[in-house]
Structures are given as structure tokens and as C-alpha cells.
Amino acid sequence: MKLAQDQSLTLVAGGAGFIGSHLCAELLARGKRVVCLDNLQTARPTNLRLLEDHPNFEFVEGDIVNALPVDITSRAGQFERIYNLACAASPPQYQADPEHTMLTCVVGTDHLLRLAETSGARFLLTSTSEVYGDPEVHPQPENYRGWVNCTGPRACYDEGKRAAEAMAFDFARMGRADVRVARIFNTYGPHMHPDDGRVVSNLVCQALSGRDITIYGDGSQTRSFCYVSDMVEGLIALMEGDLDGSEPVNLGNPEELTVTELLEAILQIVDRPVTVTHLPLPTDDPRRRRPDISRAEAQLGWRPRTPLSVGLARTCAWFAEEIAGGDVQDPVTVPVAAE
Amino acid sequence: MKLAQDQSLTLVAGGAGFIGSHLCAELLARGKRVVCLDNLQTARPTNLRLLEDHPNFEFVEGDIVNALPVDITSRAGQFERIYNLACAASPPQYQADPEHTMLTCVVGTDHLLRLAETSGARFLLTSTSEVYGDPEVHPQPENYRGWVNCTGPRACYDEGKRAAEAMAFDFARMGRADVRVARIFNTYGPHMHPDDGRVVSNLVCQALSGRDITIYGDGSQTRSFCYVSDMVEGLIALMEGDLDGSEPVNLGNPEELTVTELLEAILQIVDRPVTVTHLPLPTDDPRRRRPDISRAEAQLGWRPRTPLSVGLARTCAWFAEEIAGGDVQDPVTVPVAAE
């Protein structure tokens, strides 16, 4: 499907990924014409299947590390909003080719910022709680500068996103583009990869398949999980909000729980006996992670609304269907690292 | 001068700059054949004049942000050492085009790392004490993760260098290149730009020309100044040392003094009455900066040897000559005390 040449468009880079596919769906539901640009590196085919027949949806395959496809640049004048969600986001995926991860963050973001400049479009960068590293301040407000190891195996992503933020705010300071920067904390829901090593998908898939449950460390490390529909609402609110855009905004759920508590919540839904195996914590794994979302609440009137039990039930149901449908081959044979 | 096609070469990217030109001279003095790659963005013409007639020196003009010149790539097999000193390094210079600064750090370093991979050359990245930001730990050891504002006006450089370090260590982890990373602290000496806003060149030039002396803040912020010949020795020792290269190494002078004390030391050499004007501190200006060089001492047997009084006398003498020779646009010349 190729969208008409005379209408304003929203570009979603990384729109075939986990959060990106939900964002595309919500934008379509709100009547937007959406062009999805994705290299299909970590996207699941099913994510796009739900969108590709929509009359206001167009898919363009391309990697933002390279020059943008002519299908994008030839319509620069039509874009009024550009969302950048393009980057592998789980450690096993982004560490498989760290050079590509860094270039996606820096060169890819630069290409999209230049497109925003040419188009006069507003640009939203999805940054990450990883910019805070293994934080010494808890919860993390946006002005906390982080505790990131810039020489370690997570640096390609953490430092890549920090560099992408630097570029975005430089474009804003130079008057080249109107930018918004979201720092996304742990998000979960349907369309997650079963085998990308994230703790929610790991535990849900292991519980559903009756295999041993893998916990890294003693399970006392904490995370805060935001259901994906809440995250998408936050991203759109940030993009459309009446802000000056000169500061990043945390988006996430401030409800903090340990990995062990997460497992217990999953086992209340997937009611079956399990065996838990403990493995060593990966290098630079954050011990605690929880957003201070007071800026998002004050400036966007946004906060997550979906209770963990509801979000987990939807997620378990979706994974169960995927496993039944054969889209999930074997959720537990891939070596994983915790988020 | 084009060097022969059958000899091993050392590449110095940024070799026409302040530290780079001294490095090229020292490598030539040690019998190396040196190819200098520089975009002449911040290089002074006089820096190259001293080198260009040397039979073992070749200059190639090019910007590492772009694909490397054929004059470089066609001789990939000859390079056995690659030094990357290419980046504007003073705030007014690197902030003039922050996008280019970031891309120089990330894309430029990537191009040179790929060349090192192809060549089988050892690669040295000159990183910076700026990766520590405005440090809360003093002095700064290499395992201090820093206090960097990734959204501010210095981030294009600070985060660019952090990202470049991340890339270098990823190349090392992946077995793609043998890398060394130096974190350079404040360095001074001949070949500095008179107008790049660095405190030593500012104060020396202002004192020599009899202009008002500009101090940012109250002058109580501290710096540690390493004379350039000491720095060059440290860089070569790091490149040639028997290390595993898996960790960055601080290079700098741990002798800490306030900006006011620096001014007093300069005025002992340039003996004339001055008027001091105080201006506000720039955004994110570090309050203190001093290297912990115990790693360099233990692993390289290196430490700075040039006393401040000696280094400053040489620097003042050089700037006085530059001013007299018309290379520095300032008519005022004054006698300078001997070393």
C-alpha cells in the first residue's frame, strides 16, 4: 500500500518492533496516515501482519544507518511527525553487532533529525532508562546524570542512546528541529520477542512451556514494568504536548517489584508447578530501576493506568496463542541475559 | 611527499592539530614513516610547516567523517599503528558544529577502527578527561564512571568521546582490532590555538598582548596541566606498551592548581601589570579536574617530567614569536623571561 502524495504523514522508524507496532496501530486508530520504516532486524513478522492491510498504513524496508530510502526522502515535505523507535533494545540483540547498534543510535538518529529539519516535522527520540546505567539515585529523575560504564558490553546501547540524546538537543538548540526525547523504562506486552532475553518474556514463556525458570542473581533486583498501551499513550502525549521540548521526559511505571515478585505474579496467571534455576548476574546489570515520572505527570498529565495483573494476563494470553500457533518455536533454548 | 609503497607506516589522524603535530614530530624523530590525515578544521598552518619537508612525512587532507581517502585505503596493508587524534577539542570549536563533532567521534572513529581491522594495525583512541564530566570523585581514576550531562552543550564532545570509547572496546572484545584508549587531561604548549578559548592560551596571549585578563568564575576552579612533550611520550608509551588494552588509561599531570595560581605562574614569566576581569562560568564547566595516573605509572612507567615553570616559559616564548611573526593577529610584543 502506497499512501497518497498530497497528505501529511507520520513516520515511525522501528515501527515493526515491539513498541513501534503498537504505536503504529494507535496512530492509525486516531486517523493518522502512518509510514513505517524498519530494517526487520528484530521485528516479528506477525507485528506487521496486523497493520499491513490498513488503508492508511505503508511499510518501507530500510536501515536508518544507511541513507534513507528514496520512498522516504522523496516525500520529506509530507512528514509532520517523526518517531524514532529504531534500535535493537535487548542485550543479546544489541550486543550481537555492537557497531551496528552504536551507528543506529548516532548515524540513524542523525539521518532522521536531518529529515525532520528538511520536513519541518516534529521529532521524537525514544531514549531509554539505560542512560542512567546502574543508578545510584533511586528513583531516577531526569536530571540524574547516570552511572554508565562507557567501556563495557552494554555501552554500545547505553552510550549510543546518550549520544543520540545529545544530537537531538543540539538540533533543538541550533533551531534545526523541534524535538522531544522520551526515556523509556521497562515495557512489556504482546508483540515482545519470546527469545530476546527480557525478563517478562523469559519468565512468561518458560512458565507457559513448563520448562525450568531462569532467574539471574537471587531475584532481589528490582524493575518497574509499564504495559505497552500505557507507554504508547505516553509517547503520543509527549509528541503532541505543549512543551518546549528542551528536556527529556521519563516514561514508565513507578510501581517497583523484584524479579521474584514478578515471577509470583506470572505464576498466579500461569498456574503450574515450576523449578527455578539461578544463574549469575550479567556484567553491568542494573540492581534497581524505577522512574521518577513527576515531569510526565506535571507536563503531560500522563501516568500508567494498566494494573500489572491485567497487563500480565493479556501478555500471557498472547504468548500462549503464539506458542499454540507455532510462531514461537522454542522459547527457552536461546541463551539469554537479563534486561 | 608521497611515502614508498612497501614500507610500514604510522597513521596520525588529526596530525596537524596541537598534540597531533607534536606526536608526528616525535614519531619522525624516532625513525617512523608518518602519514598525517587531517581536515585542517582547527589545525594551524605553521604546525605542518615544521613537518612537511621531512622525507618520512606525508600529508593527506581528508575528514574522517567521510569515507577515508583512497590515498589511505589503498595502503591499508602498510599501516601498523593508527593514532586517532582527530576532533576539535576546545568548547568554542567543538560547539560551533555539534553534529560534526559527534560524527567525528563516532563515525570517524568507526572508519579508523575498520581501517585498523583491515590493516591488522594497532589503534589508539585519544579520549578525554571530559568523559568524567564535572566529577564528584577527585582525583579521577579510570573506573570512575563520570558525571556528564548528556543533554547539554558540551555533550556533543563528552558523549561523542564516551561513544568512541565504547566502539573501540567493542572492536577489541570482538577480536577485530588491538586497541588502546588514552584519556587526555588538560595539555598545553607550543602549537596551541591562541583563540580557541583554552585557559592557558587565553591567559598567555592576554598577558603577552597587555590586554585585560579574563577569568571565568572566581578563579578557584582547578585544572592540572600537562606539558605537550610529556603527553606525546605517554601516548607513544601507551601505543607501544605491553598491555592487554582492555582498559582506558589516564594521561595528564596530577599537579593541581587553581586558575588564579596558573595566572600568577604566567605573570612570573610575562612580567607586566595586568587588569583581571571576571566573567560567569560557562554551562557544565568542571569545577575540578585532576587525573589519577597510577595506572599509567604502573603499566607504562610513565609520568610527566616537565615542571610547570619550564613548560610555561616555552609556551610563552612560542606565543611571543607567533605574535611577532604575525601568525597571531596582535601587534603587541613583549620580552619573555628565559627558561
Automatic annotation (TrEMBL), chains A, B:
Its main location: Golgi. It is a single-pass type II membrane protein. It comes from the Bacteria. It is found in: Golgi apparatus membrane; Golgi apparatus, Golgi stack membrane. One of its GO terms (molecular function) is UDP-glucuronate decarboxylase activity. Its cofactor is NAD(+). One of its GO terms (cellular component) is cytoplasm. GO terms for biological process: D-xylose metabolic process; UDP-D-xylose biosynthetic process. Residues 11-252 form the NAD-dependent epimerase/dehydratase domain. It holds the Pfam family Epimerase. Keywords: Decarboxylase, Glycoprotein, Golgi apparatus, Lyase, Membrane, NAD, Signal-anchor, Transmembrane, Transmembrane helix. The keyword Transcription does not apply. InterPro entries: Epimerase_deHydtase, NAD(P)-bd_dom_sf, UXS-like. PANTHER family: UDP-GLUCURONIC ACID DECARBOXYLASE 1, UDP-GLUCURONIC ACID DECARBOXYLASE-RELATED. This is NAD-dependent epimerase/dehydratase family protein. It comes from Novosphingobium silvae.
